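Sanity check

After download, print the first record. It should look like this:
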Amino acid sequence: MAYDGPGGAMFKNNKKERDTHPDLTGFVELTDEVIRSINDQAADGVKYPKIEISGWSKVSSKGNKFISLSAKKPWEKNAGGSRGGSGGGSRGGYSRDDRRDDRGRDQRRTDDFNLDDEIPF
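Expected structure tokens:
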């Protein structure tokens, strides 16, 4: 199997003996861009820097279920309103989680959404 680049996986923890032990264990490889983002967030005073993680349920060739992972720098809103590119940290932007208050309520203004005035109904 060819190497697809940085990623990761989580598997069932077959060594779990107590409820406090994790259900899944694994790893994730980080790209230079993700590491730079973490460093930029820390330099900006972010107490707990974030990365964005995605996962897919898969089955190995031996029939074992696992979760395939990828990690990337968090989504940012920047001056152009697009996904953050390479370089630069969270200066002037915010991640998805920063748009919620302490109770998890969405705090974005309606002008943060692309609302279409031509609704077909």
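If your output differs, re-run the checksum step. Summary of this record's structure: Residues 1-75 form one domain.
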